[in-house]
């Protein structure tokens, strides 16, 4: 077998260019698999370990105010293991170095952190001293964004009074791995929202909650029925203004991190499969040509006593050797990319330890898949080589049976001789041309989809922050206030106009289905907050009934004209039946709207409001921020510009790595396929090209003939690649429909332009490499007669 091993090395050196192309494509697939699968496993392992070690609760509930004895009743519910009542309140913060008012979520945390639910992981400093009124532990994301250190002070408006809080520790919580406020906010703004933990005694005293709580976290026993526990908690806490208990799956941080883990799992299967499929096509084309050129060598090998099995094993080893190089390179690239991806995830998801540690099994499966790809691609030519009789192999390969082409049958006149040769050669080898077109189509599809995702996100931003939200600032009060407070807001410095709104938590029911959301009351002639669908059309506020988002209507299985039961989850908890007047296909949230006076009548209250939308003079915004920081009635201030900036920053940081990586991988596919096709054509037609040179064709002309075939294949693949990219974008848009957001199907011309540029760059690079080979074409040797 040493003879075959030496032959293998010589063959590998002879087709090194094509081998490198195959190696790079295989490396892309392996790198994608290792990176994404390892990241999926790392996130899953980190999440499970963090939840277990720091006792992340299973069920949560927020309410108005309940006595401690209500917690004792929850402890008696079958299946409940541990109950932790607490006090939670959002307050306005004055953070050093931050002009805008920030929102702080104050949470009571027992001094016995070691046994508490949602326990803190202390990064620096210490926990709060018992009964310490002015000490707080800050969340790491908030502290890092605002450069807070141990000993830094923050001012908070608690129950209308300024209180100075000293940061004594910086910590993480399993409840806020993804630290966002919730509600309409889907992206982190760590500068303007943070979590602060305080001692229960201090927070209860400051908020007048002695012996009471307004939030509860519950852990369950193994095999407990979560739905039954939630139902029991609702019955116990209903009289205390409970907004409805919910399980871990509906907890906002857990939902985001779990969705991300699921997406990584899906991506780890789809993306590597695309690259490895293209690699299998490359292996098949290359080995088909190698076996065809080595017919006489196969005959000699068999004549010297080597069996068909040994010949087959030789070519399988050949393919596995190339695949092994791609596998090793892919593992290294995947490891490096995984480390970069882990750093990116660490910026968004706060784990105590998030280490990218690929498991050995992942490399094993990557190797197994890689070997399967190589064998599958080389299977047909290997079987052909093994079955070829020595006597038959000694004869030259039978010439192709040339038939009239389409040009001949339809008598199409093409003046250019070079173009006629290109078209005829492509038609006589249609499967090879289609395989090349498929690979190039795949590369184009990847780029279109990636840029299409950015187009969809830009569309969401336009709809949400330009068309729907036309205010500059949204001010929310700590409780419903009389409409007269709107006049006070209108007289604040820099305020140009204001519009009131009323926001109330509700549970909507239709038949046996229900969904908890908020009912937003807007002025009928509102100009700052509009209802805009995904096509940019405005929906008008009806005088009677409610307007539901399309997603909410689908969850309830309700259509316009039918009535839904509206259960108010605050105050007297009234229940009313309202008709569904219209639907609006919004990209974000499961929203419900009603005319403001109608909502006030529904609540049996005067013209109370929950807050106001403000348009402000940009030059006077700093003065307005200072004024809003001092208003005790203000619970939070949302600034549209900072929200937009946070959105863009999140998208830019999260998409930059994946976008750049996949574009490079797509370029490798396109370049590898074009180069491979041109090299195979050059090896097959070297005699023809040399003959043309002797007949007077210039080197540029024969280069254009050879590369022109690849250009025709590329041009043929472009429209199909564009169509495939659009189709996959449509599929992803449909699959990414969640309660939180809907991805509109938007693929702008610039996305197709980027795909075109990628293909042109890859073609130019491959053409340059093949052109150098043609420049060194030995016309004397290729014109020698074969024995």
From TrEMBL:
GO-annotated cellular components: plasma membrane protein complex
Residue ranges of every copy of the ABC3 transporter permease C-terminal domain listed in the record: 269-389, 661-777
GO BP of this protein: lipoprotein localization to outer membrane
Domain of life where this protein originates: Bacteria
Keyword terms: Cell membrane, Membrane, Transmembrane, Transmembrane helix
InterPro entries in UniProt: ABC3_permease_C, Lipoprotein-release_system, MacB_PCD
Transmembrane regions listed in the UniProt entry: 20-40, 266-287, 318-342, 362-386, 431-454, 655-675, 711-732, 752-771
Coiled-coil residues: none
Membrane topology listed for this record: Multi-pass membrane protein
MacB-like periplasmic core domain segment(s): 22-235
Subcellular localization, as worded in the UniProt entry: Cell membrane
UniProt key word Transmembrane: yes
Primary subcellular site in the record, as a coarse category: membrane
Recorded family membership: Belongs to the ABC-4 integral membrane protein family. LolC/E subfamily.
The protein's name: Putative permease
Organism: Acidobacterium capsulatum (strain ATCC 51196 / DSM 11244 / BCRC 80197 / JCM 7670 / NBRC 15755 / NCIMB 13165 / 161)
Upper lineage: Bacteria, Pseudomonadati, Acidobacteriota, Terriglobia, Terriglobales
């Amino acid at each position: 077998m040493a003879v075959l091993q030496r032959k293998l090395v010589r063959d590998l050196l002879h087709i090194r260019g094509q081998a490198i192309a195959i190696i790079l494509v295989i490396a892309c697939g392996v790198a994608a698999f290792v990176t994404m699968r390892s990241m999926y496993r790392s996130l899953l392992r980190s999440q499970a370990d963090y939840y277990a070690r720091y006792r992340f609760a299973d069920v949560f509930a927020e309410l108005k105010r309940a006595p401690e004895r209500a917690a004792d009743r929850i402890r008696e519910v079958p299946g409940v293991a541990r109950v932790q009542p607490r006090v939670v309140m959002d307050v306005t913060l004055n953070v050093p170095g931050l002009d805008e008012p920030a929102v702080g979520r104050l949470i009571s945390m027992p001094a016995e952190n070691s046994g508490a639910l949602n326990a803190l992981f202390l990064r620096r400093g210490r926990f709060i001293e018992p009964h310490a009124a002015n000490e707080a532990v800050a969340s790491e994301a908030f502290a890092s964004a605002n450069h807070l250190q141990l000993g830094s002070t923050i001012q908070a408006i608690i129950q209308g009074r300024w209180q100075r809080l000293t940061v004594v520790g910086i910590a993480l919580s399993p409840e806020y791995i993804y630290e966002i406020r919730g509600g309409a906010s889907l992206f982190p703004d760590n500068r303007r929202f943070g979590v602060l933990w305080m001692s229960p005694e201090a927070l209860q005293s400051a908020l007048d909650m002695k012996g009471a709580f307004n939030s509860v976290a519950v852990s369950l026993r193994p095999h407990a029925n979560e739905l039954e526990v939630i139902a029991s908690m609702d019955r116990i806490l209903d009289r205390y203004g409970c907004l409805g208990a919910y399980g871990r799956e509906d907890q906002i941080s857990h939902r985001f991190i779990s969705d991300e883990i699921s997406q990584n799992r899906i991506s780890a299967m789809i993306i590597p499969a695309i690259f490895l499929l293209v690699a299998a096509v490359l292996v098949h084309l290359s080995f088909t040509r190698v076996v065809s050129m080595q017919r006489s060598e196969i005959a000699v090998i068999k004549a010297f006593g080597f069996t068909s099995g040994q010949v087959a094993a030789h070519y399988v080893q050949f393919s596995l050797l190339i695949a092994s190089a791609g596998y090793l390179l892919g593992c290294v690239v995947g490891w490096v990319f995984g480390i970069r991806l882990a750093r990116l995830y660490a910026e968004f998801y706060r784990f105590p330890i998030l280490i990218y540690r690929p498991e050995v099994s992942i490399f094993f499966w990557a190797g197994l898949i890689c070997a399967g790809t190589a064998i599958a691609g080389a299977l047909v030519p290997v079987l052909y080589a093994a079955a070829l009789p020595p006597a038959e192999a000694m004869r030259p390969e039978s010439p192709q049976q040339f038939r009239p082409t389409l040009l001949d049958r339809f008598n199409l006149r093409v003046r250019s001789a070079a173009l006629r040769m290109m078209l005829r050669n492509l038609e006589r080898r249609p499967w090879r041309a289609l395989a090349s077109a498929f690979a190039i189509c795949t590369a184009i599809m990847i780029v279109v989809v990636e840029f299409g995702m950015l187009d969809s996100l830009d569309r969401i931003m336009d709809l949400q922050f330009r068309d729907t939200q036309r205010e500059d600032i949204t001010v929310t009060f700590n409780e419903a206030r009389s409409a007269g407070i709107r006049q006070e807001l209108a007289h604040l410095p820099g305020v140009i106009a204001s519009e009131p709104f009323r926001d109330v938590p509700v549970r909507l029911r239709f038949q046996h289905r229900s969904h908890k959301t908020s009912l937003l009351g807007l002025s009928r002639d509102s100009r700052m907050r509009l209802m805009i669908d995904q096509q940019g059309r405005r929906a008008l506020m009806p005088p009677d009934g409610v307007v539901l988002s399309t997603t909410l209507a689908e969850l309830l299985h309700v259509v316009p004209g039918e009535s839904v039961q509206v259960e108010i989850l605050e105050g007297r908890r009234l229940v009313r039946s309202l008709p569904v007047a219209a639907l609006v296909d919004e990209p974000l949230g499961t929203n419900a709207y009603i005319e403001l006076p109608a909502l006030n009548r529904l609540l049996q209250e005067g013209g109370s409001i929950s807050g106001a939308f403000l348009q402000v003079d940009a030059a006077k915004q700093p003065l307005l921020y200072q004024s809003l920081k001092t208003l005790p009635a203000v619970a939070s201030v949302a600034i549209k510009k900072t929200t937009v900036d946070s959105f863009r920053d999140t998208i830019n940081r999260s998409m930059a790595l994946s976008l750049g990586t996949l574009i490079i991988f797509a370029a490798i596919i396109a370049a590898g396929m074009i180069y491979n096709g041109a090299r195979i054509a050059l090896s097959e037609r070297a005699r023809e090209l040399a003959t043309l040179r002797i007949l007077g064709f210039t080197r540029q002309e024969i280069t254009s003939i050879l590369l022109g075939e690849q250009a025709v294949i590329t041009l043929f693949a472009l429209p199909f690649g564009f169509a495939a990219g659009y189709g996959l974008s449509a599929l992803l848009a449909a699959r990414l429909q969640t309660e939180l957001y809907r991805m509109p199907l938007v693929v702008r011309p610039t996305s197709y332009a980027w795909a075109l540029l990628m293909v042109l760059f890859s073609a130019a690079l491959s053409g340059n490499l093949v052109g150098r080979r043609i420049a060194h074409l030995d016309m004397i040797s290729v014109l020698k007669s074969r024995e």
